Amino acid sequence: MEAEVVLASSPTDAGVSCWDLHTGAEHLRYKSCASSPHGLASVAGRFLASSQLRDRKSSSGSILYWSWNKPQVEVRSFPAEPIKALVSNSQGTYIAGGGVSGDIYFWEVATGKLLKKWHAHYRAVSCLVFNDDQSLLISGSEDGCVRVWSLFLIFDDARREEARHLFEYSFHEHSLRVTDVKTGYGGSNAIIVSASEDRTCKVWSLSRGKLLRNIVFPSIVDAISLDPGEHVFYAGSRDGKIYIAALNSPVTSNSNYGLHIIGSLSEHSKAVTCLASSADGFLLVSGSEDGMIRVWDTRTRNITRIFRHTKGTAQGPVNNVLVIRQPQNLNPRTSANSPVSPLRRHGLTLPPPLEKFANSPDENAHAKVFIGPQTTSNHLLDSSYISVQTMEAQIKELQQQGSSAAAEVDIERLKSEQLRSVQMIQQWKKMYENLHQFCVTELLDGTHTESANGPNL
Fold first, then answer.
1. Can you give the pLDDT at residue 360?
2. Residue 287 domain-assigned?
3. Which CDD domains match (predicted)?
4. In a domain, 380, yes or no
5. How many domains, in total, are found in the chain?
Protein backbone atom coordinates (compact mmCIF):
# COMPACT_ATOMS: atom_id res chain seq x y z
CA MET A 1 0.00 0.00 0.00
CA GLU A 2 1.41 3.35 -1.06
CA ALA A 3 1.90 5.84 1.77
CA GLU A 4 -0.48 8.79 1.55
CA VAL A 5 -1.00 11.80 3.77
CA VAL A 6 -3.99 14.02 4.55
CA LEU A 7 -3.52 17.80 4.58
CA ALA A 8 -6.14 20.12 6.05
CA SER A 9 -6.42 23.88 6.44
CA SER A 10 -8.99 26.45 7.53
CA PRO A 11 -9.90 30.12 6.98
CA THR A 12 -8.80 30.87 10.54
CA ASP A 13 -5.12 31.02 11.43
CA ALA A 14 -4.97 27.37 12.50
CA GLY A 15 -2.13 26.33 10.19
CA VAL A 16 -2.03 23.23 8.01
CA SER A 17 -2.47 19.85 9.68
CA CYS A 18 -0.87 16.72 8.25
CA TRP A 19 -1.54 13.05 9.08
CA ASP A 20 -0.72 9.66 7.64
CA LEU A 21 -3.94 8.52 5.95
CA HIS A 22 -3.55 4.84 6.82
CA THR A 23 -1.89 4.88 10.26
CA GLY A 24 -3.19 8.18 11.65
CA ALA A 25 0.30 9.30 12.69
CA GLU A 26 0.54 13.09 12.91
CA HIS A 27 3.26 14.92 11.01
CA LEU A 28 4.37 18.52 11.31
CA ARG A 29 1.76 21.26 11.63
CA TYR A 30 2.58 24.11 9.26
CA LYS A 31 2.03 27.47 10.90
CA SER A 32 0.50 30.81 9.90
CA CYS A 33 -2.03 29.64 7.35
CA ALA A 34 -5.51 31.10 6.86
CA SER A 35 -6.39 29.61 3.51
CA SER A 36 -9.14 30.46 1.07
CA PRO A 37 -11.43 27.66 -0.20
CA HIS A 38 -9.62 25.67 -2.92
CA GLY A 39 -6.51 27.59 -1.94
CA LEU A 40 -4.26 24.75 -0.69
CA ALA A 41 -1.94 22.95 -3.14
CA SER A 42 0.90 20.45 -3.10
CA VAL A 43 3.35 21.49 -5.82
CA ALA A 44 4.24 18.08 -7.30
CA GLY A 45 5.00 16.84 -3.78
CA ARG A 46 8.02 19.17 -3.56
CA PHE A 47 6.51 21.78 -1.25
CA LEU A 48 3.21 23.14 0.04
CA ALA A 49 1.54 26.35 -1.19
CA SER A 50 -1.55 28.23 -0.05
CA SER A 51 -3.36 31.43 -0.98
CA GLN A 52 -4.29 33.65 1.95
CA LEU A 53 -7.33 35.88 2.44
CA ARG A 54 -7.03 37.25 5.94
CA ASP A 55 -9.32 40.23 5.48
CA ARG A 56 -12.22 40.24 3.04
CA LYS A 57 -12.08 44.04 2.88
CA SER A 58 -8.37 44.09 2.13
CA SER A 59 -7.21 44.83 -1.42
CA SER A 60 -4.15 42.60 -1.09
CA GLY A 61 -3.51 38.95 -0.41
CA SER A 62 -0.57 36.59 -0.28
CA ILE A 63 0.63 33.15 -1.35
CA LEU A 64 2.79 31.20 1.10
CA TYR A 65 5.26 28.31 0.65
CA TRP A 66 6.31 25.71 3.24
CA SER A 67 8.93 23.01 2.84
CA TRP A 68 7.83 19.65 4.21
CA ASN A 69 10.35 19.51 7.05
CA LYS A 70 9.90 23.00 8.51
CA PRO A 71 6.72 24.37 10.14
CA GLN A 72 7.43 28.05 9.45
CA VAL A 73 6.56 29.88 6.25
CA GLU A 74 9.66 30.10 4.06
CA VAL A 75 8.52 32.07 1.01
CA ARG A 76 5.91 34.83 0.82
CA SER A 77 4.48 36.20 -2.42
CA PHE A 78 2.24 39.25 -2.79
CA PRO A 79 0.21 39.13 -6.02
CA ALA A 80 -1.49 42.15 -7.53
CA GLU A 81 -4.80 41.15 -5.92
CA PRO A 82 -6.11 38.56 -3.45
CA ILE A 83 -5.98 35.05 -4.91
CA LYS A 84 -8.80 32.66 -4.04
CA ALA A 85 -8.32 29.38 -5.94
CA LEU A 86 -4.77 28.02 -6.28
CA VAL A 87 -3.64 24.97 -8.26
CA SER A 88 -0.40 23.45 -9.54
CA ASN A 89 0.04 21.20 -12.54
CA SER A 90 1.08 17.63 -11.78
CA GLN A 91 4.76 18.22 -12.62
CA GLY A 92 5.03 21.29 -10.42
CA THR A 93 6.09 23.45 -13.35
CA TYR A 94 3.34 26.04 -13.08
CA ILE A 95 0.98 27.54 -10.52
CA ALA A 96 -2.35 29.07 -11.53
CA GLY A 97 -4.31 31.41 -9.30
CA GLY A 98 -7.81 32.83 -9.58
CA GLY A 99 -8.24 36.41 -8.46
CA VAL A 100 -11.21 38.14 -6.83
CA SER A 101 -11.50 40.33 -9.95
CA GLY A 102 -12.09 37.32 -12.20
CA ASP A 103 -8.55 37.32 -13.61
CA ILE A 104 -6.46 34.15 -13.82
CA TYR A 105 -2.70 34.38 -13.16
CA PHE A 106 -0.24 31.82 -14.50
CA TRP A 107 3.23 31.64 -12.94
CA GLU A 108 6.34 29.63 -13.66
CA VAL A 109 7.33 27.98 -10.38
CA ALA A 110 11.10 27.80 -10.81
CA THR A 111 11.57 31.50 -11.57
CA GLY A 112 8.41 33.00 -10.07
CA LYS A 113 7.72 34.77 -13.36
CA LEU A 114 4.15 35.76 -14.14
CA LEU A 115 3.89 34.26 -17.62
CA LYS A 116 0.28 35.15 -18.40
CA LYS A 117 -2.71 36.97 -16.95
CA TRP A 118 -6.12 37.10 -18.56
CA HIS A 119 -9.62 38.20 -17.64
CA ALA A 120 -11.51 34.94 -17.26
CA HIS A 121 -14.75 35.79 -15.45
CA TYR A 122 -16.94 38.72 -14.51
CA ARG A 123 -16.70 37.88 -10.83
CA ALA A 124 -14.18 36.13 -8.54
CA VAL A 125 -12.68 32.81 -9.62
CA SER A 126 -13.85 30.29 -7.01
CA CYS A 127 -12.12 27.09 -8.18
CA LEU A 128 -9.46 25.87 -10.62
CA VAL A 129 -8.40 22.42 -11.82
CA PHE A 130 -6.10 21.01 -14.52
CA ASN A 131 -7.31 18.10 -16.63
CA ASP A 132 -5.35 14.85 -16.41
CA ASP A 133 -3.02 15.55 -19.36
CA GLN A 134 -2.38 19.11 -18.08
CA SER A 135 -3.32 20.73 -21.42
CA LEU A 136 -6.55 22.31 -20.16
CA LEU A 137 -7.36 24.53 -17.19
CA ILE A 138 -10.96 24.54 -15.97
CA SER A 139 -12.26 27.43 -13.88
CA GLY A 140 -15.43 28.01 -11.91
CA SER A 141 -16.60 31.43 -10.79
CA GLU A 142 -18.98 33.34 -8.58
CA ASP A 143 -20.67 34.47 -11.81
CA GLY A 144 -22.07 30.93 -12.17
CA CYS A 145 -19.94 30.11 -15.21
CA VAL A 146 -17.56 27.18 -15.83
CA ARG A 147 -14.94 27.78 -18.51
CA VAL A 148 -12.38 25.55 -20.19
CA TRP A 149 -9.05 27.09 -21.24
CA SER A 150 -6.54 25.51 -23.63
CA LEU A 151 -3.03 26.35 -22.48
CA PHE A 152 -1.78 25.97 -26.05
CA LEU A 153 -4.10 28.81 -27.08
CA ILE A 154 -3.32 30.93 -24.01
CA PHE A 155 0.42 30.77 -24.71
CA ASP A 156 0.25 31.07 -28.50
CA ASP A 157 0.21 34.81 -29.16
CA ALA A 158 -0.54 34.43 -32.86
CA ARG A 159 -3.58 32.21 -32.30
CA ARG A 160 -4.79 34.45 -29.48
CA GLU A 161 -4.98 37.43 -31.81
CA GLU A 162 -7.05 35.45 -34.31
CA ALA A 163 -9.39 33.79 -31.79
CA ARG A 164 -12.82 35.28 -31.10
CA HIS A 165 -12.44 34.34 -27.42
CA LEU A 166 -9.80 32.62 -25.30
CA PHE A 167 -11.91 29.85 -23.79
CA GLU A 168 -12.64 26.52 -25.48
CA TYR A 169 -16.03 26.20 -23.79
CA SER A 170 -18.14 28.41 -21.57
CA PHE A 171 -20.79 26.56 -19.58
CA HIS A 172 -23.27 29.03 -18.09
CA GLU A 173 -26.17 26.79 -17.05
CA HIS A 174 -25.61 27.31 -13.31
CA SER A 175 -27.76 30.12 -11.94
CA LEU A 176 -25.63 30.84 -8.85
CA ARG A 177 -22.00 30.73 -7.68
CA VAL A 178 -19.92 27.69 -8.74
CA THR A 179 -18.54 26.06 -5.59
CA ASP A 180 -16.38 23.24 -6.99
CA VAL A 181 -15.19 21.67 -10.25
CA LYS A 182 -13.61 18.26 -10.84
CA THR A 183 -12.49 16.52 -14.02
CA GLY A 184 -12.19 12.83 -14.85
CA TYR A 185 -9.65 10.88 -16.90
CA GLY A 186 -9.37 10.89 -20.66
CA GLY A 187 -7.70 14.17 -21.59
CA SER A 188 -9.94 16.17 -23.90
CA ASN A 189 -12.50 13.33 -23.84
CA ALA A 190 -13.01 13.46 -20.08
CA ILE A 191 -16.06 14.60 -18.16
CA ILE A 192 -16.33 17.65 -15.92
CA VAL A 193 -18.51 17.73 -12.81
CA SER A 194 -19.40 21.14 -11.38
CA ALA A 195 -21.27 22.09 -8.19
CA SER A 196 -23.13 25.29 -7.45
CA GLU A 197 -25.11 27.16 -4.84
CA ASP A 198 -28.16 26.54 -7.04
CA ARG A 199 -28.23 23.02 -5.42
CA THR A 200 -27.24 21.25 -8.63
CA CYS A 201 -24.26 19.30 -9.87
CA LYS A 202 -23.85 19.20 -13.62
CA VAL A 203 -21.88 16.69 -15.67
CA TRP A 204 -20.32 18.02 -18.88
CA SER A 205 -18.62 16.40 -21.87
CA LEU A 206 -15.26 17.94 -22.75
CA SER A 207 -15.23 16.40 -26.23
CA ARG A 208 -18.69 17.65 -27.20
CA GLY A 209 -18.95 20.70 -24.98
CA LYS A 210 -22.44 19.72 -23.87
CA LEU A 211 -24.35 19.08 -20.66
CA LEU A 212 -24.73 15.34 -20.05
CA ARG A 213 -26.58 15.25 -16.74
CA ASN A 214 -28.15 17.64 -14.25
CA ILE A 215 -28.60 16.38 -10.67
CA VAL A 216 -30.61 18.33 -8.10
CA PHE A 217 -29.63 17.86 -4.44
CA PRO A 218 -31.61 18.49 -1.22
CA SER A 219 -29.05 21.06 -0.07
CA ILE A 220 -26.32 23.32 -1.48
CA VAL A 221 -23.22 21.33 -2.50
CA ASP A 222 -19.85 22.93 -1.69
CA ALA A 223 -17.50 20.04 -2.53
CA ILE A 224 -17.32 17.12 -4.93
CA SER A 225 -14.98 14.17 -5.41
CA LEU A 226 -15.00 11.68 -8.30
CA ASP A 227 -14.54 7.99 -7.73
CA PRO A 228 -11.40 6.94 -9.72
CA GLY A 229 -13.53 4.47 -11.65
CA GLU A 230 -15.99 7.29 -12.44
CA HIS A 231 -19.00 5.17 -11.51
CA VAL A 232 -20.11 7.63 -8.84
CA PHE A 233 -19.17 10.98 -7.38
CA TYR A 234 -19.52 12.30 -3.84
CA ALA A 235 -21.17 15.63 -3.06
CA GLY A 236 -20.58 17.32 0.31
CA SER A 237 -23.50 19.52 1.25
CA ARG A 238 -24.40 22.21 3.77
CA ASP A 239 -26.83 19.91 5.58
CA GLY A 240 -23.83 17.87 6.83
CA LYS A 241 -24.42 14.93 4.47
CA ILE A 242 -22.24 13.52 1.72
CA TYR A 243 -24.49 12.40 -1.11
CA ILE A 244 -23.48 9.60 -3.48
CA ALA A 245 -24.55 10.26 -7.06
CA ALA A 246 -24.32 7.69 -9.85
CA LEU A 247 -22.79 8.75 -13.14
CA ASN A 248 -24.11 5.77 -15.09
CA SER A 249 -27.45 5.07 -13.41
CA PRO A 250 -30.74 5.06 -15.36
CA VAL A 251 -32.99 8.08 -15.23
CA THR A 252 -35.35 6.52 -12.72
CA SER A 253 -34.28 6.12 -9.11
CA ASN A 254 -35.77 4.71 -5.93
CA SER A 255 -33.73 7.07 -3.76
CA ASN A 256 -35.53 9.37 -1.35
CA TYR A 257 -33.09 12.13 -2.27
CA GLY A 258 -33.88 12.41 -5.98
CA LEU A 259 -32.83 11.16 -9.41
CA HIS A 260 -29.35 9.63 -9.68
CA ILE A 261 -28.66 9.97 -5.91
CA ILE A 262 -28.12 6.45 -4.60
CA GLY A 263 -27.17 7.06 -0.95
CA SER A 264 -25.50 9.29 1.59
CA LEU A 265 -22.90 9.41 4.37
CA SER A 266 -23.94 11.30 7.47
CA GLU A 267 -21.83 12.05 10.56
CA HIS A 268 -20.79 15.71 10.34
CA SER A 269 -22.71 18.09 12.58
CA LYS A 270 -22.19 21.06 10.24
CA ALA A 271 -21.72 21.73 6.54
CA VAL A 272 -19.29 19.56 4.57
CA THR A 273 -16.89 21.98 2.91
CA CYS A 274 -14.26 19.82 1.18
CA LEU A 275 -13.67 16.27 -0.08
CA ALA A 276 -10.70 14.24 -1.33
CA SER A 277 -10.18 10.60 -2.29
CA SER A 278 -7.29 8.20 -1.87
CA ALA A 279 -5.49 7.05 -5.03
CA ASP A 280 -7.34 3.71 -5.10
CA GLY A 281 -10.70 5.29 -4.31
CA PHE A 282 -11.34 3.07 -1.30
CA LEU A 283 -11.06 5.95 1.18
CA LEU A 284 -12.91 9.27 1.10
CA VAL A 285 -11.77 12.18 3.28
CA SER A 286 -14.24 14.90 4.26
CA GLY A 287 -13.70 18.23 6.03
CA SER A 288 -16.42 20.23 7.71
CA GLU A 289 -17.28 23.46 9.47
CA ASP A 290 -17.40 21.37 12.65
CA GLY A 291 -13.57 21.26 12.56
CA MET A 292 -13.40 17.51 12.02
CA ILE A 293 -11.87 15.48 9.20
CA ARG A 294 -13.46 12.08 8.72
CA VAL A 295 -12.09 9.17 6.69
CA TRP A 296 -14.73 6.91 5.12
CA ASP A 297 -14.41 3.43 3.66
CA THR A 298 -16.31 3.80 0.39
CA ARG A 299 -17.01 0.06 0.20
CA THR A 300 -18.68 -0.28 3.61
CA ARG A 301 -19.61 3.41 4.01
CA ASN A 302 -18.22 3.33 7.55
CA ILE A 303 -15.85 5.80 9.22
CA THR A 304 -12.36 4.39 9.65
CA ARG A 305 -10.63 7.39 11.25
CA ILE A 306 -11.35 10.86 12.63
CA PHE A 307 -8.90 13.78 12.80
CA ARG A 308 -9.36 17.10 14.61
CA HIS A 309 -7.87 20.06 12.81
CA THR A 310 -7.81 22.51 15.71
CA LYS A 311 -6.23 21.90 19.10
CA GLY A 312 -7.92 22.02 22.48
CA THR A 313 -11.59 22.89 22.74
CA ALA A 314 -11.62 25.24 19.75
CA GLN A 315 -13.61 24.09 16.74
CA GLY A 316 -12.49 26.15 13.77
CA PRO A 317 -13.90 25.22 10.37
CA VAL A 318 -11.99 23.18 7.79
CA ASN A 319 -12.15 24.49 4.22
CA ASN A 320 -9.47 22.43 2.41
CA VAL A 321 -8.42 18.78 2.45
CA LEU A 322 -5.88 17.12 0.18
CA VAL A 323 -4.77 13.49 -0.13
CA ILE A 324 -1.33 13.17 -1.70
CA ARG A 325 1.47 10.63 -1.94
CA GLN A 326 3.73 11.02 1.08
CA PRO A 327 6.67 13.30 0.18
CA GLN A 328 10.09 11.68 0.51
CA ASN A 329 11.37 14.12 3.12
CA LEU A 330 8.24 14.17 5.28
CA ASN A 331 8.70 12.37 8.58
CA PRO A 332 6.47 12.03 11.65
CA ARG A 333 6.68 14.97 14.03
CA THR A 334 9.94 15.03 15.98
CA SER A 335 11.54 17.22 18.60
CA ALA A 336 13.40 20.44 17.92
CA ASN A 337 16.68 18.65 18.72
CA SER A 338 16.27 16.18 15.86
CA PRO A 339 19.17 15.87 13.41
CA VAL A 340 19.20 18.11 10.36
CA SER A 341 17.02 16.63 7.64
CA PRO A 342 18.47 15.24 4.41
CA LEU A 343 16.78 18.10 2.58
CA ARG A 344 18.90 20.64 4.45
CA ARG A 345 22.07 18.61 4.07
CA HIS A 346 21.63 18.54 0.32
CA GLY A 347 21.03 22.28 0.19
CA LEU A 348 17.62 22.19 -1.50
CA THR A 349 15.76 25.48 -1.35
CA LEU A 350 12.30 26.57 -2.33
CA PRO A 351 11.78 28.57 -5.52
CA PRO A 352 11.63 32.39 -5.35
CA PRO A 353 8.44 34.39 -4.67
CA LEU A 354 5.87 34.78 -7.42
CA GLU A 355 6.03 38.03 -9.35
CA LYS A 356 3.37 40.67 -8.81
CA PHE A 357 3.39 41.91 -12.40
CA ALA A 358 4.47 40.44 -15.72
CA ASN A 359 7.71 41.67 -17.26
CA SER A 360 7.90 43.12 -20.74
CA PRO A 361 7.49 40.73 -23.70
CA ASP A 362 11.14 41.17 -24.69
CA GLU A 363 12.26 40.14 -21.24
CA ASN A 364 10.19 36.94 -21.52
CA ALA A 365 11.41 36.23 -25.03
CA HIS A 366 12.55 32.74 -24.07
CA ALA A 367 11.92 30.39 -21.18
CA LYS A 368 14.78 30.39 -18.70
CA VAL A 369 13.88 27.40 -16.56
CA PHE A 370 12.46 23.94 -17.11
CA ILE A 371 11.15 21.55 -14.47
CA GLY A 372 11.35 17.89 -15.35
CA PRO A 373 8.57 15.37 -14.71
CA GLN A 374 8.18 14.05 -11.20
CA THR A 375 10.44 11.09 -10.55
CA THR A 376 9.58 7.94 -8.63
CA SER A 377 13.16 7.42 -7.49
CA ASN A 378 13.90 7.11 -3.81
CA HIS A 379 16.87 9.45 -4.15
CA LEU A 380 16.52 13.08 -3.16
CA LEU A 381 15.92 15.50 -5.98
CA ASP A 382 19.15 17.44 -5.65
CA SER A 383 18.33 19.47 -8.76
CA SER A 384 14.57 19.66 -9.19
CA TYR A 385 14.90 22.94 -11.04
CA ILE A 386 17.20 22.59 -14.05
CA SER A 387 18.55 25.49 -16.10
CA VAL A 388 17.21 25.44 -19.61
CA GLN A 389 20.54 26.68 -20.99
CA THR A 390 21.55 23.04 -21.47
CA MET A 391 18.40 22.44 -23.49
CA GLU A 392 18.16 25.57 -25.63
CA ALA A 393 19.81 23.95 -28.64
CA GLN A 394 17.26 21.12 -28.59
CA ILE A 395 14.16 23.33 -28.30
CA LYS A 396 15.27 26.22 -30.50
CA GLU A 397 13.47 24.85 -33.54
CA LEU A 398 10.21 24.45 -31.62
CA GLN A 399 10.48 27.95 -30.21
CA GLN A 400 10.87 29.37 -33.72
CA GLN A 401 7.60 27.75 -34.76
CA GLY A 402 5.52 29.52 -32.13
CA SER A 403 5.68 31.43 -28.89
CA SER A 404 8.27 30.26 -26.40
CA ALA A 405 5.74 29.54 -23.66
CA ALA A 406 3.61 27.42 -26.01
CA ALA A 407 6.74 25.51 -27.06
CA GLU A 408 7.65 24.84 -23.43
CA VAL A 409 4.18 23.51 -22.67
CA ASP A 410 4.39 21.29 -25.76
CA ILE A 411 7.79 19.98 -24.69
CA GLU A 412 6.43 19.21 -21.22
CA ARG A 413 3.67 17.11 -22.78
CA LEU A 414 6.02 15.32 -25.20
CA LYS A 415 8.52 14.46 -22.47
CA SER A 416 5.73 13.09 -20.29
CA GLU A 417 4.42 10.98 -23.18
CA GLN A 418 7.94 9.74 -23.91
CA LEU A 419 8.38 8.68 -20.28
CA ARG A 420 5.10 6.75 -20.37
CA SER A 421 6.09 5.14 -23.69
CA VAL A 422 9.44 4.00 -22.31
CA GLN A 423 7.73 2.50 -19.26
CA MET A 424 5.23 0.69 -21.49
CA ILE A 425 8.02 -0.66 -23.72
CA GLN A 426 9.82 -1.99 -20.67
CA GLN A 427 6.64 -3.71 -19.50
CA TRP A 428 6.09 -5.30 -22.92
CA LYS A 429 9.73 -6.36 -23.06
CA LYS A 430 9.41 -8.04 -19.67
CA MET A 431 6.21 -9.79 -20.77
CA TYR A 432 7.92 -10.97 -23.97
CA GLU A 433 10.88 -12.35 -22.01
CA ASN A 434 8.56 -14.21 -19.65
CA LEU A 435 6.54 -15.62 -22.55
CA HIS A 436 9.72 -16.64 -24.40
CA GLN A 437 11.05 -18.38 -21.30
CA PHE A 438 7.73 -20.17 -20.84
CA CYS A 439 7.71 -21.41 -24.46
CA VAL A 440 11.32 -22.60 -24.26
CA THR A 441 10.60 -24.43 -21.00
CA GLU A 442 7.49 -26.09 -22.44
CA LEU A 443 9.39 -27.14 -25.57
CA LEU A 444 12.26 -28.62 -23.60
CA ASP A 445 9.90 -30.45 -21.26
CA GLY A 446 8.05 -31.89 -24.27
CA THR A 447 11.30 -33.05 -25.87
CA HIS A 448 12.43 -34.73 -22.67
CA THR A 449 9.09 -36.50 -22.34
CA GLU A 450 9.25 -37.84 -25.90
CA SER A 451 12.84 -39.06 -25.34
CA ALA A 452 11.83 -40.82 -22.15
CA ASN A 453 8.84 -42.55 -23.76
CA GLY A 454 10.64 -43.47 -27.03
CA PRO A 455 12.18 -46.86 -25.98
CA ASN A 456 8.80 -48.06 -24.64
CA LEU A 457 7.10 -47.76 -28.05
1. 45
2. yes
3. WD40
4. no
5. 1
| pTM for this prediction | 0.77
Comparing 340 with 315, the larger pLDDT belongs to 315
Domain contains 135: yes
* Model pLDDT, residue 328: 80
What is the rounded distance in angstroms from the CA atom of residue 301 to the CA atom of residue 344? 42
Report the pLDDT value the prediction gives residue 25, as an integer from 0 to 100. Answer: 93
Range of the domain at 69: 4-325
Per-residue pLDDT for 305 more than 50? yes
Query: Lowest-pLDDT range, 49-58, 105-114, 248-257?
Result: 248-257
Q: How many CB atoms lie within 10 A of CB 137?
A: 25
Percent of the chain scoring above 70 in pLDDT: 75
413 located within any domain = no
What is the domain-level CATH number for residue 13? 2.130.10.10
Q: Which of 156-170, 254-268, 418-432 has the lowest mean pLDDT?
A: 418-432
CB contact at 8 A, 17 and 309 = yes
